[in-house]
Each structure stands twice: as C-alpha cells, then as structure tokens.
Amino acid sequence: MKVTVFGIGYVGLVQAAVLAEVGHDVMCIDVDEHKVENLKKGNIPIFEPGLAPLVQQNYEAGRLHFTTDAKAGIAHGTIQFIAVGTPPDEDGSADLQYVTAVARTIAEHMTDRKVVVDKSTVPVGTADKVRQVMATTLEKRGSNVPFDVVSNPEFLKEGAAVADCMRPERIVIGSDSDSKEVIEPIRELYEPFNRNHDRMIMMDIRSAELTKYAANCMLATKISFMNEMSNLAEMLGADIEKVRQGIGSDSRIGYHFIYPGCGYGGSCFPKDVQALIRTAEHIGYQPKLLQAVEQVNYQQKYKLNRLISDYFGEDLKGKTFSLWGLAFKPNTDDMREASSRVLMEQLWQAGATVQAYDPEAMHEVQRIYGQRDDLKVMDTKEAALQGADALVICTEWQSFRAPDFDIIKGALKQPVIFDGRNLFDPERLKNRGFTYYAIGRGSSIKPVI
Ligand code: UDX
C-alpha cells in the first residue's frame, strides 16, 4: 500500500520504518530540510535500538522515502498519517497548530480520496477539528474530493519502539464510519501485524482519542501510587520492594509499572497527564486523582535532593556529586522531563558540582546545559566517581546494576550512595560498609514510629 507520513519525529519515523519493513511503500514528509537530507544519508536524528538499520535498509530498498515536498508527498499515499508534535502550550494543553496545519496542507493538495489518520497524541475532539479544517480548505478550493478521518493512537515506548511497533499488543482504530472505503485500507495496512489473532480494536473516534490518554494516565497513576507508598514505607520502617512483590503477585494488580523511583519523566506521561487535566478543567470537571498523580510525581523528583540535604545539609558549596544516569529511562538519550534535571539543577543551586555519566545522553546533557563549571561530563561511570562526595543514581541502565563496589568505595571521598531506582540490596551494601539511601526502603532510614 502507498502511505504518506507527516512528521519525521519519534512516532512518525518508527511507524514509517516499520510499515516499510513489512512491504508498504512509505513517503515521509517533514518541513525540516536538514533532517530530511540527513535521513537520506542514513543519519538518524534519535537514538532508538534497531531503528537505524531498519531505516537504512528500507530506504535503500526503495520502500521508504523522505521529502519536504508536501504536494508530491500527498499525491503518494492513499493513507495519510499525521504524526507531528503536539507540544504543551503555556497552560499544559496540547498545542494543535501543527496537526491542523498538516490537515490544511493535505486538503490544499489532494486530488483523490484520502484516509487521514491521526497518530499524534491529540485531545478528544481533534479528529472533528481536522475534518472541519479539511472541509473548509476543500470548499475554498471549490473541490469535493472525498476524505475520511480516523484516530489511531500510538502506544510505543522509547527504547523498545521498534519492537512495540512490529508486535503491537493492540491496534486501536477510531472511526465514525463503518464504510468499506475507510475500514478496508486500514485493515490492509495493518494486516501484517494482525497474523495470529486480531489485534484491531474498533471504536468511535472520541473513544479512541480518550483511550490514548487513559492508558498513559493509568500507568502514571500506578507509578505515583507506588511512589506515595514508598514514602509511607520509608516512614513506617517497611521495605517498598517487598511490598511491590507482595502486591504484584496479585494478578489483578500485576508486576508492571509498580516500580517506585525518583519520578516519571519522558515526552508522554508528564505531558499527557497535564493535557487531560486541562481538558477536564476546560469542560468544568475537577480531575482530583489526575491532579494528585501529577503532584506526587512533582514532589518525587525532589526526593533525592531531600535525602542529600538531610545527609550533607542545605549548603553544598565545595561538594561534588557523581551522577549515574541522565536519560529519563534506560535505552534512550532522551532527557525530556528527566528526574536527573531536577536533581542537577537543585544541586547547582545549593553550590555543588556534578560529575555525570550516561551511556547515551552525554551529548544531550551538553546540548541542554552547555559548558558550565559545575557540570563535568565524564566518559565512563568509573571516571564520574573520582573524588566525589557521594554517588547518585537516576536511571536504571543495565550497566549500573552490578558495579565493582570496591572501585566505588576507593573513588568516592566517603562511601555514600543515593539510589533513585532501587538497584541494590540495602543489607549487602551495609555489610560492604556503604551508607545507602534508596526509595522507600525502611531499613536504610530510621522509622518515624
Ligand atoms: C510511555 C508509555 O509506556 C507508552 O505506552 C506511550 O506510548 C508513551 O509513554 P515512555 O515514555 O517511552 O512510554 O516510557 P515508559 O517506559 O512508559 O516510562 C516512563 C517513565 O516512567 C520513566 O521515567 C520511567 O522511569 C518511569 N517508570 C516506569 C517508573 O518510575 N516506574 C515504573 O514502574 C515504570
């Protein structure tokens, strides 16, 4: 099938490459000439396991194309994906200007029937807006070329995006029409991903749009709930890791997304929770649970700083902290809304220096903060330890899980670890002579009662 994808960002590029891989003929359009030229040369703008070879092979095989020419790109596909960004505007609502601009462009140039698919995470009601913008633009042209709008939210996770897209657990399709002209092309498009059993869940457009937000908000709720439990566990002298196993074994609760830590980050949870709160407020509903999810997460991002100031005091002038992990989670270089940013900014404010290491986000931290005397970006995790007053861990990279503790002890001024991801056994670290603070592990902190 011939497919056009607007927006070569995270979602658009992964989706386009995976569709090309199963044999579809995919044209990607972006306004950024530099990005398009780089992709043609095989330079992928993001770090994502497995994506670079997939893009390159399919580009070389002639199934994946990149262009800035909207008119030619629109002529290419029967299906037109909108996968452009929906950044938060000043009040946290999703900014739809890029989505509506694409809708307008499609309507300006289309000459045959198109099925327009909203892939971007968009508030409920956006498909109606897209339809309206397209109808108005076509009317201005004096054209009556038919089109349909479908919602098809994306559920991929960074770091596992290619696998998630290749083997989706579900394909949610929202359509207000059951006409063959809409459903058949979508079925044909996703047939290769639908082999063993039907993964397509059909529903009306508004339900599909809300499904995306509900999924992310549910996951964020699980995390904030566990973070709240971890704070209670700490004060009550209980160990949240034991509690996690105790509740996760109940199949109604499950083990996924109940890992406590120094807060969730990334491009989705913080933005989507906030956007759904704004949508609710806009229609006169106070979403108390979602507001609490956001507040708990906000506080949790300061958790490590609180532990550090309890130990070292408020004034950290002259102190150096070794930081392992900058990315918002492992297997990505993405630092959007990462807990490490709150940690570093607070440490700097208190006068400390940070010696940081991350397996992938070293360029990203320099891009965000530039050169500064109180940030030293180190080449290895061992180098980041040298002469520091303590080690702080913000991301659970695999390579941090079994470090040489003798090296850590020898390199730090004093053997103190603040672990925002509960990587180690507190008892074992205590026996090795470390002072170890983790999240919600009562054994490392004196209970309140
Ligand atoms: C998320 C959703 O999982 C995905 O379905 C959606 O399409 C986009 O948003 P992503 O942001 O890539 O994906 O990362 P995810 O693995 O969900 O982690 C998000 C954040 O939650 C990370 O900061 C992670 O450290 C944190 N997290 C996750 C926890 O703190 N505890 C957990 O148990 C799980």
Outline:
By secondary structure, this protein is of the alpha/beta class. The chain has helices spanning 10-21, 33-40, 51-60, 70-76, 97-109, 126-141, 161-166, 180-190, 205-236, 240-248, 269-282, 288-300, 303-312, 339-349, 362-369, 405-411, 426-431, and strands at residues 2-6, 25-29, 64-67, 79-82, 114-118, 147-151, 171-174, 200-203, 320-324, 353-357, 375-377, 390-393, 416-419, 435-437.
Overall mean pLDDT: 95
Low-confidence stretches are none
- Give the C-alpha Rg: 24 Å
How much helical structure, as a percent, in the residues?
40-55%
Q: What is the total number of structural domains?
A: 2
Structural class estimated from helices and strands: alpha/beta
Strand order of the largest sheet: 3-2-1-4-5-6
What are the bound molecules? uridine-5'-diphosphate-xylopyranose
From the N-terminal CA to the C-terminal CA, the straight-line distance is 65 Å
The CATH homology group name of the largest domain: NAD(P)-binding Rossmann-like Domain
Strand content: 5-15%
Compute the number of strand runs: 14
Number of helical segments?
17
Classified by CATH, the class of the largest domain is: Alpha Beta
Which CATH-level-2 architecture of the largest domain? 3-Layer(aba) Sandwich
> What is the CATH topology descriptor of the largest domain?
Rossmann fold
Q: Per the principal axes of the C-alpha atoms, what is the gross shape?
A: elongated
Largest sheet: 6 strands, parallel
